[in-house]
Amino acid sequence: MWNTRFQRFAIDLIKNGNNPQVAGVSEWLDKRSENELSGFVVEFATGATAHFHTPMMLAPGAKHGGSEEIVEGEPVAPMAFPDGLGSGGKIKLADVERWFMAVLASSGNREISGLEAWSQREDARPRHAGVTVSFHSGGKVFAAVAYLLRPGMSTDEQTYYEPLEVA
Fold first, then answer.
1. DSSP letter assigned to residue 63
2. How many of the other CB atoms lie within 10 Å of CB of 27?
3. CB of 147 within 8 A of CB of 49?
4. Where are the alpha helices (DSSP H) in the chain?
5. What pLDDT, on the 0 to 100 scale, is given for residue 33?
6. Which of 75, 82, 80 is closest to 114 using CA atoms?
7. Rounded to an integer, what distance in angstroms lies between the CA atom of residue 130 and that of residue 126?
8. 60 CB-near residues (< 8 Å, 6+ apart)
9. pLDDT digit string, tens, across residues 42-99
10. Strands (E) located in 9-160
11. C-alpha–C-alpha distance, residues 165 and 95, integer Å
């Protein structure tokens, strides 16, 4: 699944899902960078926002400008949503990562072959959160939490790829 289709899929999934802790979701395009960064923004019921940047790695043999080959297989197993997302009026970065993995895993999408939480890697770095979404085609999307912002906070107030641990 290429990243533009993945973004639409994720937005639709979040928008149409039973996510009482989510107030909204929309596309996101950051033109401040030399390369425009695209993805989506999730606004949580607390008012905090998580900006996901979604670069991709094409499947072996695929080429930009070509057509996307859709390959299906067994979907990943559903997983539990994290307890306490937004409890106490706060959103934790680690919960955002686990919540998004649960959203994807619960979709039953037959293109997704695996999910990896960055915070669970052996070489995990603090404040580096996201989900690697692997597909049966051999391609990947890297859904990085580029920003996690407190209510009313602007992306100008935070360094890219250094999201708050709690918002």
1. -
2. 12
3. yes
4. 3-16, 93-105
5. 64
6. 75
7. 12
8. 138
9. 999 999 999 999 999 999 988 888 889 999 999 999 999 988 788 888 999 999 999 9
10. 22-30, 37-44, 49-53, 56-57, 112-117, 130-135, 140-149
11. 10
Coil vs helix vs strand at 54? coil
pTM tops 0.70:
yes
Taking residue 124's Cβ as centre, other Cβ atoms within 10 Å add up to: 11
- Of 45, 53, 84, whose CA–CA distance to 146 is shortest? 53
**Cα–Cα distance for residue pair 164/147, rounded to 1 Å:** 7
- Residue 145 has which token pair? 């939490």
CA distances (Å), origin 106, targets 37, 59, 81? 27, 24, 9
Determine the length of the chain: 167
Sign of the CA dihedral running 90, 96, 102, 108: positive
Give yes or no for a contact between 82 and 98, defined as CB atoms under 8 angstroms apart: yes
Greatest alpha-carbon span in the chain: 48
Could you identify the residue written with the tokens 């926002």? 49
